[in-house]
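Protein entry
_____________
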Amino acid sequence: MTTRFALLLVLAAVNLEAEILKVLECHDRVVQHGIESMMLAQEVNSMFGNSNVDHYISSFGSKEHTPVWISETYFGGRYTLTLQVPISIDYETCRLNGAVGNATVYLNEVTKVEVSSSGIAGATLKGGIGPRRGELSEDEWKQVVKGRGDWSILNVPITTNHPPVKHFDDFVRQAREPIRNRKEGFDNPVRQAIESLRNRKANGPDPNKDKQVQDAPSNDLECHERIVRHGIDTLILPREVNSLFGATNVDHFISKFGSKTQIPVWHSVAYFAGRYRFWLQVPISVDHTKCRLNGAMNSATVQIDQITNVDTSKPGAARARTEGLWTLGESEWKWMIRNHGDWSVVKVPIRTNAPVKGFEEYVRQERGRPLHERQEEFDKPIRQAIDALAYPSGGTTGRDR
């Protein structure tokens, strides 16, 4: 492959990155408009201070899911508050149309924070505080706002005179980092890469190309493995999955890796409790030239399938029948993680005492399948929603299968 042709392929991928940046910029414009126009967001800012609140939108650009406005903050040295409200967006003008449903506010208390040897701060949460395990209606939230932050109006036991939980600030900083530092950690490096590649195109082949090739991986599979390792080291989401299920019980891989027209998706897959299959999926940006992960580009989704029967009548061809599934947004996943893996807080009825016969054989078979088969299978259910991220107005480009 000539240097010029290789550069054209890279630029084709960069064009997609440029489109993704436009989507992220649109997201930021909608958020800014929402802060200026939506009373709920202003109320959270007024109560906790603008610099202490993160506002963002889950399912932004999705054709299948209603986008949800999220305002998130941490206060009192031990508490978390998340306000969520479904919204409508004008993607043509990148403005917020308004709320399309009532808001819900979630309150929780951090009881302990442990910092691992690698510096990761893990929090243990009480599981919600106040009525209905910390879930407040919009009307109840309005009462607290009207009372100028007096939580006793709702009998919510907020204490402000206790010492902060040890390492609470470390936990808060790490939780806020992906949102607050997205521009620095993702947008700016992608822009720099785009500018650099465009300059290379204008100036001709890079005289240092031979040295770069020597440092490059020998094939796509090796590059994929390097990016997965980098993702496990740098992304919070895969580490959360590993922490919940155990690193040896989780498979991480990337679908549409190397595609010139479609956004790659990170998958973390685990099987647990003798009858469930867990998927976490998040669209990502990949630097193929360095075989490194730039970062996540939108919210993650989680799906849990219940396996009710495994047919092992044919050796080596175990077939599973599933019945029912649960889908969680990233905010719900985070809520469950903050509650120390308590699935009940997100209304997922996990049974831990009813293993399905043949489940372990099925799991061994699934985890042993060729990587490309698993990539394609796990990619299909999410592909339409992920492509909507890059083309929120409904436009498309050619698709590679």
Q: What stands out?
A: The radius of gyration is 23 Å. Confidence is low (pLDDT under 50) at residues 1-14, 209-218, 389-401. The longest strand covers residues 79-90.
